[in-house]
Specification:
Layout: E1 2-8, H1 14-24, E2 32-36, H2 43-52, E3 56-59, H3 61-64, H4 74-80, H5 85-94, E4 99-106, E5 112-118
Length: 122
C-alpha cells in the first residue's frame, strides 16, 4: 500500500493540502491518506480526501514516535515527538517495513506538508 502522510496547521485549507500532495505524490499511485488522530473531523482534510476519493487513516500520537523521518521540524518534534508528522504518519499507516518514497514537501502557503511511503509487505 502507498500512503500519503499529511501534516498541517489548523489554518490550512484543502488547497494547502492539495499543493503539498501534488508535489509529493508525483509518480506514485497513492492508495490512502494518513495524519495524526487529533486532525479527525478537520474540514479541510475531509474536503480534500473527498475531492481525491481516498480514505484517511488516523494515527495515534504514540505511533508517530520512533518513526525514522528524513526531515526534522523543531515544531513537529516539540508537539508530536517526531521530526515530521507527514513522514511519520505515512510510515505508520503503510505498515511494518515501510519506507519513504518521498520526503515531506511543503505546500506553497507553508501550511501543510505531505510525504509518501510504501508498505514493506505485499
Amino acid at each position: 500500500m502507498i500512503v500519503a502522510g499529511l501534516g498541517f496547521s489548523s489554518t490550512a485549507t484543502a488547497d494547502s493540502l492539495r499543493s503539498a500532495f501534488n508535489v509529493a505524490s508525483v509518480g506514485h499511485r497513492v492508495d490512502a491518506l494518513a495524519t495524526v488522530a487529533e486532525k479527525m473531523g478537520n474540514a479541510a482534510l475531509t474536503d480534500f480526501a473527498e475531492a481525491i476519493a481516498l480514505p484517511v487513516h488516523f494515527i495515534a500520537p504514540d505511533d508517530l514516535i520512533g518513526q525514522r523521518t528524513l526531515t526534522c521540524s523543531p515544531r513537529s518534534r516539540a508537539t508530536h515527538g517526531t521530526g515530521s508528522v507527514a513522514e511519520a504518519s505515512a510510515l505508520a499507516a503503510a505498515g511494518f517495513g515501510a519506507r519513504l518514497l518521498s520526503p515531506r514537501h511543503i505546500s506553497d502557503d507553508r501550511l501543510a506538508t505531505c510525504a509518501v511511503a510504501i508498505g514493506g509487505q505485499t
